[in-house]
Amino acid sequence: MVFNWRDDTEYYATVHDLNRLNEFLYIDVHFSSLLSVDVKTEVDFILKLTATNDYDLPKNKWTELSSSTHTRTVTCEKKSNCSRHTLVYEPYLNYQNYRLDLQVDPKTTREFITNIYIDVFFVRRGMTMFELFFRYVFVMLNIICFTYFVKRVRGYGFRTFDFEQKWVACLLLLLLLFNNPLWPILLLSSSGFVVFLDAFVTTIFFLGIWGFWLCLIDGYRYRPEERTIKKFYLPKFIPLFLLWLFFFIIYIWGQMHEKNDSQYETTNDIPGFITLEIIMFLIFLFYILWVIYACIRVFIEIKEKPDQKKRFYTFFIISAITFILTILVVSGGFVNSLRNTSLEFLATYVIYNSYLLSYSVALLPASKPTDKFSHTELDEDTTDLEESINKESENSDGVALHTHNYMKSEEESEKSSEKYSNSSSSSNETD
């Protein structure tokens, strides 16, 4: 909406017919400049946000939600639009009608500003239903794939899982949390715990993805017995945990402040917010350099392991595409902008769901020993072992019996020969 400059410098915008399916209300402002030079100045915005339901609208009964003054740094290029600033971000629509009253300090703006542009954003109800439908489609696919994956590999035992299979089994559970089957509660409830849970689930999934890429790429260089917690996982866990911690703090801090103050703007109202972003960026840059270094080392050493070359190349190509898309998603603004259109939302969730689901199918074993087959094979082996032992015992008993009979026959022959010799000697004496 365009508002012409007036002497009283007071403006207002009214939005009607909203409900929880519209998800949030986002109002921002920017100016247009007439000057032929660049301008940078401080502008005071006096804001008041009121709301009412349809049954109170004929009575002109409005409830004041917030009223405050915010100072923003406005920069304008010569004869162009000025920087955009957030006026209102209302994450929970408890009312059906909203009105924003705006006053701008004329002392700092009258000289170079001609028009004020106030933009109102909210999610269309059809988009919300679209998002809800595909969330549950992804949840069902996730459950089916995870169940089938576990069914195929459970006969081998978790300790016998391959390195990639252990990671994918854990990531499928995190993917279920990322798809968030409890997302409708976020629409219906304005509780701070729900906001915290949503932020935690989202950030913990990205932590799992980052750890999966780093550990799997670097893990190809080590034998299974060398991948110990102290020497292999702990050095990777420390920077990843710090990266997740800063990412989570920034995410939840912004969400909670926007919930408590609809006129809150993250970059201006958090002391040291830019410092937090710089620290997180440096840690993330260190992570990217580590991944690149691990890839180079693996490409050099994988030539000596031809059995793992195909597995690594498959993983590397799929993960590289997903990694690039992830960078584009994060740089494009995951929290707010990706929920504005159905295409952006669908692209975001298709990236991670298709990546993990397809990779889990690729890691399925060629055949799975069922429990019945395993017990039968064990019983047959046990039976064969018992039969061989019995045969050996029978053979040993037969040899012992034969030896005993042979010794007995020798004793009898000796006795008979002695008896014969005695009888011969007695007959000679008689003669």
TrEMBL record:
<feature type="transmembrane region" description="Helical">
    <location>
        <begin position="237"/>
        <end position="254"/>
    </location>
</feature>
<dbReference type="GO" id="GO:0015643">
    <property type="term" value="F:toxic substance binding"/>
</dbReference>
<dbReference type="Pfam" id="PF06664">
    <property type="entry name" value="WLS-like_TM"/>
</dbReference>
<keyword id="KW-0812">Transmembrane</keyword>
<feature type="transmembrane region" description="Helical">
    <location>
        <begin position="193"/>
        <end position="216"/>
    </location>
</feature>
<feature type="transmembrane region" description="Helical">
    <location>
        <begin position="312"/>
        <end position="334"/>
    </location>
</feature>
<dbReference type="InterPro" id="IPR047843">
    <property type="entry name" value="WLS-like_TM"/>
</dbReference>
<keyword id="KW-1133">Transmembrane helix</keyword>
<feature type="transmembrane region" description="Helical">
    <location>
        <begin position="132"/>
        <end position="150"/>
    </location>
</feature>
<feature type="transmembrane region" description="Helical">
    <location>
        <begin position="274"/>
        <end position="300"/>
    </location>
</feature>
<feature type="compositionally biased region" description="Low complexity">
    <location>
        <begin position="419"/>
        <end position="431"/>
    </location>
</feature>
<keyword id="KW-0472">Membrane</keyword>
<feature type="domain" description="Wntless-like transmembrane">
    <location>
        <begin position="127"/>
        <end position="365"/>
    </location>
</feature>
<protein>
    <submittedName>
        <fullName>Transmembrane protein</fullName>
    </submittedName>
</protein>
<dbReference type="GO" id="GO:0016020">
    <property type="term" value="C:membrane"/>
</dbReference>
<dbReference type="InterPro" id="IPR040416">
    <property type="entry name" value="TMEM181"/>
</dbReference>
<feature type="transmembrane region" description="Helical">
    <location>
        <begin position="170"/>
        <end position="187"/>
    </location>
</feature>
<feature type="transmembrane region" description="Helical">
    <location>
        <begin position="346"/>
        <end position="366"/>
    </location>
</feature>
<feature type="compositionally biased region" description="Basic and acidic residues">
    <location>
        <begin position="407"/>
        <end position="418"/>
    </location>
</feature>
<feature type="region of interest" description="Disordered">
    <location>
        <begin position="379"/>
        <end position="431"/>
    </location>
</feature>
